[in-house]
Amino acid sequence: MLANRSIDIPYQQLPFKGQFNISPLGAFRNELTDQPHRHDHFQIIWFIKGKGRHMVDFVWYDVDDNMLFLLRPGQVHQLDCEREGYFMYFTEQFYFTNKHDKETLYDFSNLFDHWHGYGPITISENTGKSFLGLTELMAREINCAPSCNKGIVKHYLNAFLLLAEREKKRNASETMMPLSHDGRVVQLRRLLEQHYQTEHQVTFYANAFALTPKRLNEITKDTTGRTVTELLHDRIVLESKRNLAFSHKSVKEICYELGFEDPAYFSRFFKNNTGISPQDFREMMFK
Known about the structure:
- By secondary structure, this protein is an alpha+beta fold.
- It is built from 11 helices and 7 strands.
- 46% of the residues lie in helices and 17% in strands.
- This is AraC-like DNA-binding protein.
- It holds the Pfam family AraC_binding.
């Protein structure tokens, strides 16, 4: 059960060296790491050895050896496990030198995209050896102050992400869940992230692609297994849970922030999508 916390959930502030850092997981401990928290940067957590569990956005995952978790900015997570390995983070400012870079990261076969359902990536022995070499190279380079070269670190990081992408595809093929891809769905994700609080109609998103709502739904259904409305509702529910669990905001305040005009309707929406009322969810989190 999550710890009883009634304050606004913080964005964790750690003594990072700059726009990128890498460190052993054993050193990744402070007053927040074992409590629910979130970051304003991308984070990679690689368990070389692990036993226990890891919560990401209110879902607990069993932690095992050779397991990789990829976190986007804003995701709530909590570590409750024994761990050896590495974590690294990088900011948008570090990685996104230009527009092409941003499109490349978001297009890493949806490495940091969760429309197919979030989950850790199991790493093969050979890839683990490559990861270890790359983490050592990255750590060595960032410790070469003041001559540390951002471009060199970024190339090592790109290699790490490409290997992670390959492992994610291998995981999907082994579970008979091949990942399909459509660039329009990547663009849709960005639109949903920008407008989910204010635009709740499929027509708005379909117009952005000059498509009919029916056609856009067909595209998202083929690629993600979900309709545009379902993807939108998933995002609204997630943000609702984050606010209910980790803020002082009233249900009415959360309702208005998420673009609902009627708190009673918002409560019905939340219960229809979760099976529990907003107030009951909040009370459950604090037991």
